[in-house]
Amino acid sequence: MRLVLRDVAGPVLTPGSDGYAAECATTDPHRPLQPTAVIGATGEDDVRKAVSFAAWQGLPVAVKSAAHQVVGSADGGLLITTGRMKSLSVEAATRSVRAGAGVLWDEVVARTAPLGLAPVMGSAPGIGVVGYTLGGGLSPLLGRTHGYAADHVLRVKVVTADGELRTVTPEREPSLFWALLGGKGNFGVVTEIEFRVFPVTRFQGGGIFFAGERLADVLEAWRRWVATVPEEMSSSLAVRPMPGLPSVPRALRGSSVVHVRIGHLGAAEECDRLVAPLRAAAPVLLDTVGTRPVTAFGEIHQDTDPLHPVHRTVALRALPREAADVLVRLAGPGSVRRPARLEIRALGGALDREPEVPNAVASRGVPFVVVVSATGGGERAGALGEELAQAVGGLAPWATDRSVVNFLSAQEATDEESVRAAYGPVRYSRLAEVKRHYDPANLFRFNHNIRPV
């Protein structure tokens, strides 16, 4: 390890050394990272040297910024953390952004908003730009209007398994460009990404909260409603327990609620007209839908829960009344073993359309994705995962294999058959061929792993 200590600018840490635990920390307490060593990369040169060293030593590589990429334990491998790589520039004239590997969405929006621009950002401000985009990137505000974040990438800088820093565009190494966008971290360490942004300054959005006991009524109204709204309207529905803390509004404190999330790129009057049927579905406990600056995009979902609790994901090709009844039995007031949280996102719109430059995003054409989650001690993680898998089994008649790759649980993402199913056989085979070309030894495998042909 002395070679790395001498040659890289960032810290090199091993188990037991000061800072090792903090550098390995993730938002998932059930799956701690335990690499042989960690390199805190400060720039592209550090990444290139780290990858070359790992290949020389036969160490598999894991990559972590905001923990959206790595899903394995990294046991016996080299962890490269990119949170120090914070380069960020905005070109207003071309409506484009260049972001380093450690940049978060709230950092991008803080720079673009004063220029009247916004990216296809995620639901939580603290999500990393690179990991989110490599998995497609599903926005709760701009997604149905503009598609996936991956659809608007212009250029990617990536260090591949041979230690080479490549600038990848649709014209230069097109097969790698296609695979990177949707193929997660299988093909190298992304050091910088350039993407388009859009003229958005304000939006209509927030949440409408109902008592958990009214789930059947609210879900039925929402299920019918989402089929009628324009692409400028994005929405999802969550069943979530609210803590009994003073910071929680009194009307919601300490209870299970149904939270309908709204993100609308239109006028306030039009938004009010569109959401009126939802407000009439049941007595409203709290309504926060209103005009907001684009910097307040995190207020749509209010994602304060851990990013990666124990969860299971199922994509649905339809949401008929019978499927809604299954969800009510799973998470409603009569449920015997209610999960801590249930979420249904409505996709569609531009998320169904192929972009000008195709990519490997697998979930185009999937209308709904459901995530059920629970919390518990590390020793309970496996059992909880199995319980959740059984719980969503009732949705099998309406399920489709292809799914939103970013939403796969750690258990699903580390199971080869689950990953293969999420991409579909044709797309997976093409990804495996690209993997063979750029990473034949499967150096990058602590991720949603695609094995080389």
UniProtKB/TrEMBL annotation:
Its cofactor is FAD. Residues 31-200 form the FAD-binding PCMH-type domain. The keyword Transferase does not apply. Transmembrane segments: none annotated. The keyword Cell wall biogenesis/degradation does not apply. InterPro entries: BBE, FAD-bd_PCMH, FAD-bd_PCMH-like_sf, FAD-bd_PCMH_sub1, FAD-bd_PCMH_sub2, FAD-linked_Oxidoreductase, Oxid_FAD_bind_N. It holds the Pfam family FAD_binding_4. Keywords: FAD, Flavoprotein, Oxidoreductase. It comes from the Bacteria. Belongs to the oxygen-dependent FAD-linked oxidoreductase family. This is FAD-binding oxidoreductase. It comes from Streptomyces violaceorubidus.
